[in-house]
Amino acid sequence: MLGRTPAVEPPFLAAPLEHSALSVNSQDLQDRIRLNADQCVKCGFCLPHCPTYRLRADEAESPRGRVALAEGLAESRLTPSKRLDAHLWSCLECRACEPVCPSLVAVGSIMDDVRALRREQSTGIARRWVLAWLDRLSSASGADRAALLARAYQKSGLARLAEATGITRHPRLSAFHRVALELRQPARLNEEKPAKSGAPRGVDLFIGCVARTAQPGALAAAQQLLTRLGLEVRVPRGQACCGALHRHNGFPRQADQLLTRNAAVLAERPVVGIASACVAELRTHTALAGVHDICRLLAALEWPADLRLRPLRKAVAVHEPCSQRNVLRDPSAAYDLLTRIPGISVVGLEDNAYCCGAAGSYLLQQPKAAQALLAPKVRAMRALGTDILVTTNTGCALHLAAGAHEAGLSLEVLHPVELVVRQLDS
After folding, report:
1. Any idea what the Cα angle at residue 27 is, between residues 21 and 33, rounded to 5°?
2. Which end of the chain, N or C, is more open, meaning fewer C-beta atoms within 10 Å of its C-beta?
3. What's residue 257's pLDDT?
4. How does pLDDT run across 284-340, given as a tens digit for each residue?
5. In 3D, which of 138, 217, 192, 204 has the Cα closest to residue 390?
């Protein structure tokens, strides 16, 4: 418990998933798809809220269209094909359709299940190749190697050469190039810090996988600010990726194993996460249902009288990740925290209701669509004219920073906690 800390209840979660089973059964997947899809009355309320339907104006690129396709596949009325897969895998799983659905259709669950079904139906070689890639992408060692390669790519001149020769105009190469320019030195945190004698309260910090190199400053800032608030911060050794990358790519068994591993090392004390998507995924496990989003926790805590923030008299733009808006259902968390900074003007980024295109591994797997979805965000950033943008999700931070860089904007992309720590009065 957090002692005198006011209780922070997890915000409302729409249709939380149960991830207890560690096996995948095709018949179970088909049954769940049929059961959930049967709730859809095809009213079309979801259409204007879907980023891919907005982008392509194609019924098969809408939530109700994909639900119908998944149902047809589960009932064997549709035959698997490249065209069918293209529509199923182009879904961002942003879940913007769920809050507006009058029938409470769990579109995210349907998409996870139909992708798992397609993995089961695919060849073993293809399935193993994708799984190996996801395992490497989501591991701590993989993040460290990616950061090392990214630094070599930046410093060797290869990045400039790639831009000069036009190679980066190829969508997939461009995606990896853009990400490589944004990766940083991995965060170095003292894992499994020993408890301080007499410490009245403490929390465990979830560090995830990609955040180690994509937002190392955010992890360090979270540790610093929580400590200043009188909490003993521990970084338990043995934690893993939250599992979201595997789940949304059709590997629920592996995602459940990662969740189980995290539950084993994080269940002793209150847990805090800096990335909204990770917090959302962790909360689907019974033992981790109370994981705190760092912005909401810091906004709700009672701060000591001697902890003051210096004024910041400028406008700061806020990007609201889909996981923060549509899964945690708490889009105001960053705003509530930032208003603790005197003089600040906090402005929501126009088009916040729509996905930026990052969507986990989507920015690497669907680079053309990811870029198209990013374009309105870049225009909105340019229109605001501010030099600071904050976001609460790691993948979004990478994607937005790359877009700002390419557009020639003098814009810094930060986690809200990083900005707060900058304003600490020493």
Report:
1. 85
2. C
3. 95
4. 999 999 999 999 999 999 999 999 999 999 999 999 999 999 999 999 999 999 999
5. 217
Give whole-number Cα distances, 305 to 7, 195, 254, 309, 425, in Å: 20, 25, 46, 11, 12
Q: Determine phi and psi for 26, rounding to 5 degrees.
A: -60, -40
pTM of this prediction? 0.87
Residue type present at position 182: E
Residue whose entry in the numeric block shows the structure tokens 């200043």: 228
Short-list 273, 243, 275, CA closest to 257? 243
- Which residue ranges in the chain fall short of pLDDT 70? 1-23, 141-144, 146-151, 153-155, 158-164, 166-200
- What's the rounded Cα separation, in Å, for the pair 282 and 288? 6
- Joined together, the tokens standing for residue 410 give 């003098």
Q: Locate tokens 């290869």: which residue?
A: 158
Residue that is written with structure tokens 């605001």 in the block: 384
Q: SS3 letters for the chain?
A: CCCCCCCCCCCCCCCCCCCCCCCCCHHHHHHHHHHHHCCCCCCCCCHHHCHHHHHHCCHHHCHHHHHHHHHHHHCCCCCCCHHHHHHHHCCCCCCCCCCCCCCCCCHHHHHHHHHHHHHHHCCHHHHHHHHHHHHHHCCHHHHHHHHHHHHHHHHCCHHHHHHHHCHHHCHHHHHHHHHHHHCCCCCCCCECCCCCCCCCCEEEEECCCCHHHHCHHHHHHHHHHHHHCCCEEEECCCCCCCCHHHHHCCCHHHHHHHHHHHHHHHCCCCEEECCHHHHHHHCCCHHHCCCEEHHHHHHHCCCCCCCCECCCCCEEEEECCHHHHHHCCCCCHHHHHHCCCCCCEEEECCCCCCCCCCCCCHHHHCHHHHHHHHHHHHHHHHHHCCCEEEECCHHHHHHHHHHHHHCCCCCEEECHHHHHHHCECC
